[in-house]
Amino acid sequence: MLSSLEQVIYRDTAHEVRIQDVVGLLAAAGMQVYIVGGAPRDWLMGVPTQDVDIAVDRSMEEVHQLLRHAYPDIDPVRSRLDRFGMMCWGDDASGGVDFSFLRSPGDIQNDDMRTTSFIPRGDVRDDALMRDFSVNAFYFACHEGGVLLDPLGCGLEDVQGRILRLITHPRVLETSYRITFRILQFICRGYTPAANALEHLERYADHDIQGTGARLLGFVNSHFGSQHGQREEFKQRLYACARQEASRKVLDGVFR
């Protein structure tokens, strides 16, 4: 765990900034600061990880301004999406660190996640319902001295059993399109899907495939890269889930 937080996310001749430096900076400013996503899961499994994401209870503008004040000579913002509360900060060599703010499914507007403007929240349980699986819904509370939270109460058991339990709020499932692909990605990694994950594939696979369209190619390239075996397994499983001709046409375009 400590080695993950000691990762350098920005370095030049005058600066060396580590994840633990920005975590300490944000916590000292009174923010709730959590390590979220895959990193706490990997720590529990004893697996080294370089993929550390930080969630806070404030806007990306506030996070950015704190970083600007602490490091006035540099401003390595790699990307920023205020509407969704996301920012990547760091240099090209490290890939930086991803920040987000805690969200609530109750804020989804226009029946479309992609056009919703979220606002920062402070409830980790609400934020957990925005995520995909119980094994990805841990919160390592840095501002509380390093307390690991499992706000939905099922993550620890599922990590131990490598069970893929869907915990996403129905509002998110109806207004976004990526959960099918995440389920199949984790099945390809060796996770056993719980009943509700299989039910999602049955109900939403065509919805997700057609809603994502050609953007699916970006997901495939990003998550599988040179892992040709897993990529082929993912493709085969996805075709097996496609019930409608329109879905198969989308897949033909992506995998041609």
TrEMBL record:
Xref: Gene3D superfamilies: Beta Polymerase, domain 2
An annotated GO BP: tRNA processing
Top-level division of the source organism's lineage: Bacteria
Residues in coiled coil: none
Listed SUPFAM superfamilies: Nucleotidyltransferase
Required cofactor(s): Mg(2+)
Family annotation (Pfam families): PolyA_pol
Cytoplasm recorded as keyword: no
Domain Poly A polymerase head: 33-165
GO molecular function, one term: nucleotidyltransferase activity
UniProt xrefs under InterPro entries: Bact_CCA-adding_enz_type3_sf, NT_sf, PolA_pol_head_dom
Keywords: Magnesium, Metal-binding, Nucleotidyltransferase, RNA-binding, Transferase, tRNA processing
The UniProt record lists the keyword Magnesium: yes
Similarity comment: Belongs to the tRNA nucleotidyltransferase/poly(A) polymerase family.
Matching PANTHER family: CCA TRNA NUCLEOTIDYLTRANSFERASE 1, MITOCHONDRIAL
Protein name, entry field: Polynucleotide adenylyltransferase
Native species: Stigmatella aurantiaca (strain DW4/3-1)
Lineage: Bacteria, Pseudomonadati, Myxococcota, Myxococcia, Myxococcales
